[in-house]
Design brief:
The structure holds two protein chains of two kinds. By secondary structure, chain A is of the alpha+beta class. Chain A contains three helices and four strands; from the N terminus they run E-H-E-H-E-E-H. Chain A has a four-stranded mixed sheet with strand order 2-1-3-4, sandwiched between helices. The chains are: A alpha+beta, B alpha/beta.
């Protein structure tokens, strides 16, 4: 399944939905709270070119938002 | 095909309470929704749901959901793509996961879709400074300059949330006066870093990699890092219309005081209906009234059991 990182803010709805989806499918993930760490926020902006959360990185592939079909494909579910 | 007495389309603050009541009326009930918890989950703090002095929209959505599950009603996370009338009584509901369900009665608690500004730059800069979810993205604009476009209570609440992070928040509205709940209006006035810009229309959103500003129709421009668009919503009533449900000129579903539409066995509740005051609590009320109407309808039409 590979390496999964999710950039979040604590109040973000679609981050919670994405995390729930990972749990449901037993996907291990690393969460980075960009609200708490400005340098991580900068890292997210640079990696993804996005100014919105969630940003997900699955095996190097960037997915923006809680896009279920895209997640399914990237995770091979 | 699975058969139900009552299928609720929409899993928000109108549909979920309806399902609780329907379960207690012993109607075989199913809820199908795209966003479990509904629109309220994108509200930061809810302060007007009875019994909850202050609760996040997300937590309220979870509580509503748990309440439904505690009554042994299944909630399916799926999108309804078609509703059709059966030859006699009842309906067939199809979803994007290619499931089909049969229902004696239907509740449209389908809510709304956020309205877009439809100006140049809006689409190009979505998630690059243009956002429709302050509760998601507010924290990314620490020390930045942002604007909320819109004059509703939701717009005021977004501005208040953003003012906790951003250096400066403009509320830009085309009307002469914003119209938040008075309590939120007072909070806006008290915030030193919120400024109102009235009688202004956005002409264009521009930037490079990210948003850098907006231009006004009235002339002039404003330097910005973020634009939060909160200009109302359009009712999700197309599926209802397809089976003959009447809507008004705004495409909102017409219901009577018993939450009935003009089509027998079809009800509607929440943000999708033609009620002026749209709140989580009023949607819940319309929803539970619909559940009761469906219960009475099924009891009075026991011949439906033969189908």
């Amino acid at each position: 399944m590979g390496k999964v990182t999710i950039y979040t803010t604590p109040t973000c709805t679609y981050c919670k939905l994405a995390k729930a989806y990972f749990k449901e499918n037993n996907v291990e993930y690393k969460e980075i709270n960009v609200a708490a760490d400005q340098s991580k926020a900068q890292e997210m902006f640079e990696k993804s070119g996005q100014l919105g959360v969630p940003v997900l990185e699955i095996n190097g592939k960037i997915i923006v938002g809680f896009d279920k079909p895209a997640l399914k494909e990237a995770l091979g579910l | 095909m699975d058969k139900y007495d009552f299928i609720v389309i929409g899993a928000g603050s109108a549909g979920l309470p309806a399902a609780v009541y329907a379960a207690r009326f012993r109607l075989k009930t199913l809820v199908i929704g795209e966003l479990i918890g509904g629109t309220i989950v994108n509200t930061h703090i809810v302060e007007n749901w009875p019994g909850e002095k202050a609760i996040t929209g997300w937590d309220l959505g979870e509580k509503l959901q748990d309440h439904v599950k505690a009554n042994d009603v299944k909630i399916v996370n799926d999108k309804v793509v078609d509703v059709s009338k059966k030859s006699k009584l009842g309906f067939v509901v199809k979803t994007s996961d290619r499931k089909e369900y049969e229902a004696k009665t239907i509740l449209f608690a389908t809510g709304t879709t956020r309205r877009k500004l439809n100006v140049p730059g809006e689409k190009e800069f979505e998630n690059k400074g243009v956002s429709y979810c302050a509760v998601c993205d507010a924290a990314l604009f620490k020390g930045k300059i942002v604007a909320v476009i819109g004059g509703s209570d939701s717009a005021a609440k977004e501005a208040l949330l953003l003012s906790e992070y951003a250096k400066k928040v403009y509320i830009i509205y085309r009307g002469e006066k914003i119209r938040p709940e008075p309590i939120n209006g007072e909070r806006v006035v008290q915030k030193a870093n919120i400024e109102l810009m009235l009688k202004k229309n956005v002409l264009e959103i521009f930037g490079e990699k990210f948003v850098t500003g907006i231009k006004f129709k009235e002339g002039g421009q404003l330097k910005l890092d973020g634009v939060f668009i909160e200009i109302g919503a359009l009712p999700n009533s197309e599926l209802a219309e397809k089976i003959g449900v009447k809507v008004d000129e705004k495409k909102e579903i017409l219901i009577d005081v018993e939450s009935k539409t003009n089509v027998q066995g079809v009800y509607a509740a929440g943000d999708v209906v033609n009620r002026h005051f749209k709140q989580a609590i009023t949607g819940a009320s319309e929803g539970v009234i619909a559940a009761f109407s469906a219960y009475e309808f099924i009891n009075n039409n026991s011949a439906m059991d033969q189908h």
